[in-house]
Amino acid sequence: KPLVKVPETKNLTLKEAIKVLAENKLRYQLESGEGESSINSLIVDQTPKAGAQINEDGEVILYTKPNASQ
After folding, report:
1. CA 48 – CA 34 distance, rounded (Å)
2. pLDDT, position 11
């Protein structure tokens, strides 16, 4: 499989992050730090980090927190 560069998703909402990952042919898995994840949750961290090279269709773990501004 071709390698793709992991995009930066930190500080995006979950909805935006999912779109960015899909555009890069990547899947995601959620780890919610506190409370339930919603589409407006903010991404606080990700594994692997932005700029890493992983296989197309690879998985990026997203760490979320509730978005206080919503």
Report:
1. 21
2. 96
Instruction: With beta carbons less than 8 A apart as the criterion, state whether 5 and 35 touch.
Output: no
Instruction: Tokens for 4, please give them.
Output: 């793709």
Output DSSP code: residue 22. H
Give 49's contacts (C-beta < 8 A, 6+ positions apart).
6
What residues are paired with 63 via a beta bridge?
A: 31, 45
For 33, residues 6+ apart whose C-beta sits below 8 A from its C-beta are: 44, 63, 64, 65
Q: What is the pLDDT of residues 38-49, one digit of tens each?
A: 889 999 999 999
Q: State the greatest distance between any 2 C-alpha atoms of the chain, in Å, as a whole number.
A: 39
Cβ distance 20 to 7 under 8 Å?
yes
